[in-house]
Amino acid sequence: MDATLVNFGDFAERSCDLDSFCIPRRYWRCWAETTPMKKLIRKKASAKRTPPPRPAKQAGAKHPRSQQNRASATLDADGKLTFNHAMVYVKDVERGLGFYRDLLGFKLIEDFRYENKPVYARLRAPGGDGTIALHQAGPEVSVLSDGVRLYFEVRELDNFCRNLQQKGFHMTQLPRMMPWGWRHAYLNDPDGHEISLYWAGENRMKKTVMKAAQKAARA
Questions:
Q1: Which are the contacts of 175, defined by CB distance < 8 A and separation ≥ 6?
Q2: Which helix (DSSP H) or strand (DSSP E) does residue 215 occupy?
Q3: Residues 203 and 170 sit within 8 Å (Cβ to Cβ)
Q4: How far apart are CA 171 and CA 186, in angstroms?
Q5: Is 178 within 8 Å of 188 (Cβ atoms)?
Q6: Which of 26, 27, 34, 4 minimizes the C-alpha distance to 119?
Q7: Which ranges of 20-146 does DSSP label H, i.e. alpha helix?
Q8: 11, 71, 72, 88: which is deepest, by most CB within 10 A?
Q9: β partners of residue 122
Q10: How far is it, in rounded angstroms, from Cα 128 to Cα 155?
Q11: What's the rounded Cα separation, in Å, for the pair 195 and 159?
């Protein structure tokens, strides 16, 4: 594996993006490792089948392997934009990990530390390929997020919420069918960010029809 030494910028008393991470240059150095994408394994053709003739090679410069691997695995075949990541600013990343990793089950991808304390962590949802990041907020920066809510979908919603309650976590709303046909529960993370745990199933990508939702609520 190739390794590249990274030096982050000088410390600033404010929240900032990872490109200018708030860590003193004299304290913080990390190794950013990149792992080549796994080569696709092709099945061998049957011995009886005659292989087709190979097309003639076109003239021109070859693309370096690094450029071929540059595309994200989350992009579809057409290269369309996808959404898969949210940054959550918190007052204490360790405390945030205790919630998102230990309670909700997110898997830690990586973290960065300053004076042996995590100041940034990136996590992957236990299902699917969605990720979130926890970013240490500056001492005078508010982490209130009025108007923004995180949604996490889980099929066994009632059991999931019951397990959270058994671990002593408070739910602001227990699971119930909402007028738009989705079953929702609500809670707040340790920094007050509002979170909805829900199950929509096949209705998630369908247009909301209130009559159908009311019928589902009576069922």
A1: 157, 158, 161, 183, 184, 185, 197
A2: helix 210-218
A3: no
A4: 6
A5: no
A6: 27
A7: 65-68, 93-100
A8: 88
A9: 110, 133
A10: 13
A11: 17
Amino acid of residue 7 = N
CB 199 within 8 A of CB 155: yes
142: three-class secondary structure by DSSP: coil
**Helix, strand, coil percent content, the chain, rounded in steps of 5:** 20, 30, 55
Q: What is the pLDDT of residue 21?
A: 46
In three-state secondary structure terms, 164 is helix
Residues 17, 121, 160: CA angle, nearest 5 degrees: 125
DSSP-derived letter for residue 14 is S
Q: Between β-strands 131-136 and 85-90, what pairing exists: parallel, antiparallel or unpaired?
A: parallel
**pTM recorded for the entire structure:** 0.61
Number of H helices, E strands in the chain: 4, 10
Whole-number pLDDT of residue 12: 37
Cα Rg of the chain, angstroms: 23
Burial (CB count within 10 angstroms: exposed 0-12, middle 13-18, buried 19+), residue 140: exposed
Dig out the tokens for 164 from the structure: 């959270």
